[in-house]
Amino acid sequence: MNIKYQIQVIFGFFTILLISSCQSAGVNSTGSEYMPDMAHSVAYESNVYGYYYNNRWGTEDELHKMVQPRVPVKGTIARGYAGALDPYNSATGVSYKPNGSVPYYYADSEEERSRATTEIIKNPYPITASGLENGKLLYNIQCAICHGEKGDGAGYLLRDDGGKYPVQPANFMLDTFVNSSNGRYYHAIMYGRNLMGGYSDKLSYEERWQVIQYIRSLQAASKKLEYSEKLNTLNTSDTPYSVIASKMAAITPAATVIISTDTSATHKAASGKESKH
Fold first, then answer.
1. pLDDT tens for residues 101-145?
2. Quick one: how far is CA 195 from the chain centroid?
3. Is 150:231 a contact under the CB 8 Å cutoff?
4. Closest to 218 in 3D by CA, of 155, 172, 184
5. Residue 48 half-sphere exposure, CB side, CA atoms within 13 Å?
6. Is 254 exposed, middle or buried (CB count within 10 Å of its CB: 0-12, 13-18, 19+)?
7. What are all long-range contacts of 166-171, with beta carbons under 8 Å and residues at least 24 apart?
């Protein structure tokens, strides 16, 4: 075998090797890569799913699990989002906003949904202008894309060019929703319903009730009724702030009289003591 033939064989071998190593990029493949570890992270990246077969830490299923948004450890409360004032925490001198995490004693089942609908009636927060304003903001961010800005179930995802939505979102303007208790809404916010996911991790305790109040205001407007901090003609479960303010005003004069009487008595006693000296 002469040298010229050997060179031809070696050249042909490397030519075939080079051609076979060139792969076309596909939908789910970039083809052959030179130093792929320069482009693929061996460590997992938050909220990015890109499995790399040369990883050294686990399987593809483990990667998929790790890159998902994580939920808080059960029982934990984010700083600044406690549910109510706690004397123990107050004694620590740490200030926090009491509006976020409140125990919810209903499970995610149809039986518990019915129980919540029956038992949760009154909104714990009075109707205020600021509450309705914030409820509108939160509703438009979290809910309107499906339920529509008017609450009629005709959100952006149901537009003519948006494709077919598999399930019609709830139309809050229907009498069945208008006449439903607040528990029906609150339970849906906590756990979701059908294709709708839960929003307990996105809305604080107070914010959930503000969203429900705003939905009630939309229902009132559709029925030509009033639902505001001054008057509520839609239902008897939600209290306008004006009702509470009027009760407080009725109590205030009596408290003022007691205070002024006590002050006067104290002043007289003090004057009497001074006159003895």
1. 688 889 999 999 999 999 999 999 999 999 999 999 999 999 999
2. 16
3. no
4. 172
5. 9
6. exposed
7. 166/195, 167/194, 167/195, 169/196, 171/147
Q: Has residue 96 got a pLDDT over 80? A: no
Q: Across the strands, what pairs with 240?
A: 127
**Domain boundaries of the chain, sorted by first residue:** 107-241
Q: How far apart are CA 217 and CA 239, in angstroms?
A: 13
At 93, list the tokens: 């001198």
Residue 83 CB coordination number (10 Å):
16
Each residue's pLDDT tens digit, 33-50: 667 667 777 676 666 666
* pTM of the predicted protein model: 0.60
- How far apart (Å, rounded) are the C-alpha atoms in residues 245 and 241? 6
Tell me the CATH class for 107-241: mainly alpha
